[in-house]
Amino acid sequence: MIDQKEDAARAAWLYFARSYTQKQVANQLGITRQKGFRTRREWPLTGLRRRDP
Q1: 6 Cβ contact list (under 8 Å, min separation 6)
Q2: pLDDT (tens digit per residue) in 1-53
């Protein structure tokens, strides 16, 4: 479970902070886009939140 949370946190950070697309996130983490999309369900568990400008 820890690895999944870490992967979710990394994916969320890349998506929000670096403005990566889902495809770019998946490529960066070495996972499929489908797995990357599934990690989005876990993003709220990471405590990260998107900050609007």
Answers
A1: none
A2: 447 777 778 888 888 889 999 899 899 989 888 887 777 776 666 666 666 55
Cα 20 from Cα 22, distance rounded (Å):
7
Instruction: Name the pTM for this structure.
Output: 0.67
Give 35's Cβ-side CA count (13 Å radius): 11
Give the residue from 24, 46, 45 showing the smallest Cα distance to 36. 24
HSE of 10, CA atoms in CB hemisphere, 13 A = 15
48 within 8 A of 12, measured Cβ to Cβ: yes
- Tally of residues, the chain: 53
